[in-house]
Structures are given as structure tokens and as C-alpha cells.
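Subject: Sanity check before I submit

Could someone independently write out the C-alpha cells for this chain? I want to compare against mine line by line before I put it in a report. The sequence has 182 residues.
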Amino acid sequence: EEHVQALFGKDELEPLRPLYQEGFYAAKETVAVVGPRRRMIPDVRVLGPCRGASQVELAFTDGISLGIDLPVRISGDHRDTPGCVLVGPNGVAELQSGVIRAMRHVHMGPADLKYYDVSDGDGMHLRVVSEGCTSVLEDLRVRADDHVKLEVHIDTDEGNALNLEQATHVELLKPGDCRCQQ
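---
Independent answer below. Compare away.
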């Protein structure tokens, strides 16, 4: 909340559109993310609602461009992570930590956990069939919560490498499932 005040001069973010998970939204507000190379990524959309600590999730190539060595972490795990500078229309916020490359993961509610026979923290694979680009992403971490809908989170680099926009079939698999070798 203190960063919202510093960056935008107000106490709350203004929702632009809801995200797939209930209660979360893309805010109207954007920031510029500045790295140690003094390069920046402008117009990065802020997501709400506010949490206990500010966090910036970047794709691998964004980290290279900014000069930030991005550790792969589950959202909220800021141990030993770098920081950055955020620039908003009202001011600047310097994060001492919290810049990560989000670990690929899948949100699951109780029915999904039962269907896939997995538990919170288990690993899964994502098989994506695209023309000339069928691939399997390994090591998706299961993130269980009673109040979520089934949703896979990968970054833009991974989605582009998979040609995800042209995918004709996507499936979640448990490690060792023979369909990964097809």
C-alpha cells in the first residue's frame, strides 16, 4: 500500500478488468520497471489487490534486458532476490528485493487435486500441441487452494516458445505419464 501511495498518489488501485481468479484484477495503473543497466520496461500493468509486499515478475528475456539475474521463485518467496526501481506518474519506489521469474505453476482447487491425484507442491508437466512445435514443459508446481479455479501460469517467453496461441491441444500430466514421450 505504501508503494501505491508513492507511485500513484492514492491509497487504492483502480480495477481495469477482473483476472480469471476470483478477487484479483488488472489495475488501470502501470509503472516503468528500471534495472541496474538503467534500461526500463515502460507501461507494466499492476495487478491487485495489494499484498503484504510488492513483487515484480519478469520473463527471462526481460531480466536480461534490464540486467537483473532473475531467480525462479514461487510468488511471494522473496528470499535472496534482487530489487529494482519502479517509476509511476506520482513518484518512485525502490524495491530492495522481490524481483523474480515466476516458477511455472498450476492453480488447483479440491476437485482438481482429486481428479489429477496430486497434492500441493507436487510437480506436473504441461504438454502443448502446436503445429510443428509440440512440446512438454516440466516441473509445473501444484498450488492448491480451496478458492481457485484450474489455471496454468507460465511466462511470455515460455508461451512464445510453445507457440501457445496456435495450440490445438493442451494437457496436464503427472511425471512418468507415457504421453510425454509421444
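---
OP: Matches mine. For the report I'm noting this point. Residues 2-8 form the longest helix (7 residues).
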